[in-house]
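Dear Dr. K.,

Following up on our conversation at the group meeting, I've run the structure prediction for FAD-binding oxidoreductase from Sapientia aquatica. I'm pasting the input sequence below exactly as I used it, so you can double-check it against your construct before we proceed with anything downstream. Let me know if the numbering doesn't match what you have in your notebook.
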Amino acid sequence: MNTFLERCQQIVGADFVLTDDAEKLSYVTDYRQRFIGRALAVIKPANTLEVAAIVKLCAEHKVAIVPQGGNTGLVLGSVPDQSGNAIVLSLLRLNQIRAIDAINNTITVDAGCRLTQVQDAATSIQRLFPLSLASEGTCTIGGNLSTNAGGTAVLHYGNCRALCLGLEVVTAQGDIWDGLRGLRKDNTGYDLRDLYIGAEGTLGVITGALFQLFPLPQSQLTALVALNSVADAVALFHLARSNSKDTVLSAFELISSFCLELVGKHFPAIRQPTLAAHPYYVLIELSSQEPEANSVTALENLIELAMEQGIVHDAVLASSLTQSNALWQLRESISSAQAAEGKNIKHDISLPISNIAAFIDATDAQLQKQFSGCRMVTFGHLGDGNLHYNVSAPLNDSHDEFLAQQSAVNRVVYDSVAHFCGSISAEHGLGALKHDEILRYKSPVEMQLMRQIKQALDPHNIMNPGKVVTPF
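The predicted structure tokens came back this morning:
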């Protein structure tokens, strides 16, 4: 291996081949600080050519590769296992905005660009890059694509796959596929782009991407409304979609009352709006190219109609950008507040919107029956069917003891997800955490097709092995 590492140093420079345990620690530790893997080295190439050279070298020596961006994943997809046989291929030095085309409304970026960097570049030419996540200050575009990230704007703009027009990828053999074409229509064979998006680095290394941009909205209005049930939230969503004419329903976020309690407990400096206590809340955002006055009227009319129908019982409308940002800060602080409360069991699931209320009612009851006193931290992107359905330990119970029951909790949740025709991973991916779970919920035909794709593109199983699917 000394020869292998020496050749890596020749390719990227000795300063960018990390072998010291202390230097490697942050790269082999997962985002939630629950797992620490081991790596032969952390390699930090500066461009696509260096990535290709490293991958080609790894293919020659049969060394496994774990591609990594901001390492903000939640399913152990971006960290190595504990064998110490893999390298971590950090793409953080690939961080350039390559091109912006204001006429074609596209932007071409390196995979190591932070999400906020891409958002800011779009804003600089009066365009919108709508992908928005709580981790947007640290996550990278390559990671977003590898998990087909969604976030809060999927409802109108779609997830990462929908936003991406083209990719640049280094294959498992070390070849470079340049698919950075800014085309909305290109029906010339198999869609290779969609194979790599959502593959979590198991088929190749995404090094660049070309995305669609959109006009900046002239107005964005936000409201937080109080409801008695998830069924009412679904009814409100249907009402909002049916009554939006000149406005766009750009976000529709479900928040349980316990979520706001946790934010208030752990982040008291974040001001909470004065609303009557109710079991659930919805954060609504309307966007428009029309003057703000029109959007204000549309939002007010929607809430008034919902109140008349007994769906909404209280509401706060943001009257300024500062107030709107404060409402979004409440939403984006939920995960941090839950982490501050203690260890918890996370579930990133998706369901048909029509089944969400029944799923929550049924699964909450099952969990209380088997794990009495467990506390549900339920929130997420109801408008696109994506729930973060998280389970915290009963008050005053040992968090570690509760976490030891994770497999049993997962079985209740995932079996219920399957019963209600959903998916056990909406936007976080499978990684190593759900690598075995998926075998229970995908058909043998699906799994065989996935294995055949993996084996065809990565025959030596060097690309992020042990994640998503095992080829043999």
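Two things stood out to me. The longest helix spans residues 292-308. The chain has four domains: 2-90, 97-215, 219-335, 342-419.

Best regards,
J.T.
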